[in-house]
Amino acid sequence: MIDPRKTLRTLILEDYLFTDDESALTDDMSFLREGILDSMGILEIILFLEERFQVHVAEDEMVPQNLDSINNLLGYIQRKQKAA
Amino acid sequence: MRTLLEKLNLVARQYPERVAVVDADQSITYEELAGEIRELGATLAARCPVGSTAVLVIENSIRYVVALYGCWSAGLIAVPTDAHSREREIEQVVSHARPALMIASTRKKSAVAVAERFAIPVLDIERAFDTPTVDAGCEPRSHEDALIIYTSGTSGDPKGVVLTHSNLLANTESIVDYLELTHEDSILVVLPFHYSYGNSVLNTHLFVGGKVVVGPSMMYPQAVTDELRRQRVTGFSGVPTTMALLVDRTDLGTDPPPLRYVTQAGGGMDKDLTLRLKAAMAAPTRLFVMYGQTEATARLTWLPPDRLDEKLGSAGIPIPGVTLRIAGKDGRQLGEGQVGEVLALGDNIMSGYWCNPEATAATVIDGWLHTGDLGYLDADGYLFIRGRASEMIKTGAYRVSPKEIEELVAGLEFIDEVAVCGVPDPLLGQVVAAFLVGEESPANARKVLSLCRQSLSLHKVPRYIEWRDRLPKTASGKLKKHMLAASRELRV
């Protein structure tokens, strides 16, 4: 069973912050405001969601409310999986 | 009229109640904006000698506009930086520009840390208006320096492009002329104001009494398309990556916003994307393809929209007040269709690089800007860009110096040799790739990326890393980067 929180945190920490220091990322930290991701980065995250969680991200769902923090991503994945 | 500040004050008298700028938090009228600029100008004038530099670390916002024009109101030279810069990058700018003051949000810890290290006072932009002030009474002269925009130089050290008030005025007037901007126009801005393109979009719209709406980040392109519809602006400006994201990642084409004009600069846009963008927009929207450089304030050429199909792939004709010439390696002027370096002459050409007379002398010769871009003019005088003479990487709207990244990575003990170059990318044009010689291991690759991540803005961090036994070189030992660019395989 995948732990989505752990999976997403590991992805951001390892592939974008290049650290294993858990304190470098809080779950409500904005990827945009903190300069953690750019346009390319967010597209990579979307591909990751589609591959790992089988979540199809529609164009009108590519908004900060769904994607801009660990908490927002988790909420979005849950809503999508519930609706499926 | 001699300066953009003078013009803004005129506009404020002409259209006092019109909204000048809208950001995420609030909007401001021209009368209010001019008042806040005067107040900040007085505060700055009381703290800094005329002609000194002030570094700005502020995101796109009303505060940014007040700070920029406030510097001019105090006779200072504004040095805007990317608010997302890493500490090391802010330090590079500060150590080179030697500012008398930093204007920033004190929440920007990296900026404050640098200011403390260099013993520079910080004016907190969130609180800058609390202090009662007297009238500054300083009106800058047109030949005086107004702005320093830092770009990556080929040597890896930052290069500060110095623009005078008359440079800014000349380029603004030319752009307003060919875009036919009026006070009825309004624009959604996603480009950073601290870059030459964003700076020109801001200044041209304030110049005519138009409205500047600070847009959301392009990280979420659909939010930008939604905002274009909601704000009902007349204009939008972007770089090729912006346009690719809007066309391919949003529903732009299903309900095109009623724009009068869309402008594109910041690197060549391929023909296919140009046509797809045009098709996605509403019929009356005019698409302006443009070309320029920071060293030319912003703009050098524009392609009249009614010639877009006929001259597809061209950067267009010189803007009013600019003369272009194509020169061969020996400096001789080349004829129609012959590829050489693009040279430009006009009142918009920078006064030079800050504290770098050698680089200035090599770039502006007898008044002509040597752009480093290769291109040709066709029989009708339309410019076609065919590459760059230098090895700078162009990723999205950014110019990146391979040297800056190479020097950083070369300092790691397990690296024997490193070469950085741009490799093709469908979205960004190019992305940064690093080729390493040294102790190969996944852990060391991560250390390279971690260092880059800590020290460099996101667009400079390599997207690709590849270990090599050796780097390809000529017999004389010169790196053959074109061979590396063509051969990257491993994605990290």
CATH hierarchy: architecture of the largest domain in chain B:
3-Layer(aba) Sandwich
Order of secondary-structure elements of chain A: HHHH
Number of helices, counting only DSSP H or I runs of 4 residues or more of chain A: 4
Low-confidence stretches of chain A: none
Looking at the structure, what is the overall shape of chain B?
globular
Give a short account of the largest sheet of chain A: none
How much helix, percentage-wise, in residues of chain B?
Answer: 25-40%
Count of individual beta strands of chain B: 26
Separation, N- and C-terminal Cα atoms of chain A: 18 Å
Main sheet strand line-up of chain B: 2-1-10-9-11-12-13-14-15
**How many structural domains can be distinguished in the coordinates of chain B?**
2
The SS-based structural class of chain A is: mainly alpha
Query: How many separate domains of chain A?
Result: 1
What features would you highlight for this structure?
heterodimer, A: 84 residues, mainly alpha, 4 helices, globular, B: 492 residues, alpha/beta, Rossmann fold, GMP Synthetase, Chain A, domain 3, 2 domains, 5-stranded antiparallel β-sheet, 14 helices, 26 strands
